[in-house]
Hints:
The complex is a heterodimer.
Chain A: E1 4-7, E2 10-13, E3 19-25, E4 30-38, E5 45-51, E6 57-58, E7 67-73, E8 76-81, E9 90-98, E10 101-107, E11 111-115
Parallel strand pairs in A: 2-11
Antiparallel strand pairs in A: 1-3, 3-8, 4-5, 4-9, 5-6, 7-8, 9-10, 9-11
Chain B: E1 4-7, E2 10-14, E3 19-25, E4 30-38, E5 45-51, E6 56-59, E7 62-67, E8 72-77, E9 86-94, E10 100-102, E11 106-111
Parallel strand pairs in B: 2-11
Antiparallel strand pairs in B: 1-3, 3-8, 4-5, 4-9, 6-7, 7-8, 9-10, 9-11
Amino acid sequence: GAVVSQHPSWVICKSGTSVKIECRSLDFQATTMFWYRQFPKQSLMLMATSNEGSKATYEQGVEKDKFLINHASLTLSTLTVTSAHPEDSSFYICSARGGREQETQYFGPGTRLLVL
Amino acid sequence: KNQVEQSPQSLIILEGKNCTLQCNYTVSPFSNLRWYKQDTGRGPVSLTIMTFSENTKSNGRYTATLDADTKQSSLHITASQLSDSASYICVVIKAAGNKLTFGGGTRVLVKP
């Protein structure tokens, strides 16, 4: 099956700093990428949807200036958490859709963010 | 109210035993339903994908059923193994737009 990678797998940062998370589709071209956030013992919550070369569409309640998404190519999307605060600590998961199975989303392994 | 409800929220089973997880949904119009396994600290991995016309689908020791009339699905785990300990998430995909709606998940713990 298709492979989606994320980097880093975990990150610890100080409050007020910005953190960038990368999401790559390794063996297919992802026309659409999705960013999710997951708090402990809860299910995934969609943050935003991005199509290559266009602005991301954010879900209600998600601050676009706080969570900057760049989908610069068909294999790479980045999520930047700007001026991170402890409440931004969470598990961030990306998924990608594209390739031969246009309707299937493939999930990355996730990035654990801890803001001190 | 969530459009995808899973039960139970968690369960503990002994290694080698079987278990069944339930998923009820109200998402409409329906495209397909997927069961994912999510290990702690990892992203979800697809187990089964079922469309409207499919009643059952197996993937090794995992068997999913779908009743599109009653909008219910189940995931049956046969002869559970310690590695089956994980969260199992039911996801319903809406037609026209392919929007995913996630259930809350069922946390399964398999004990030796």
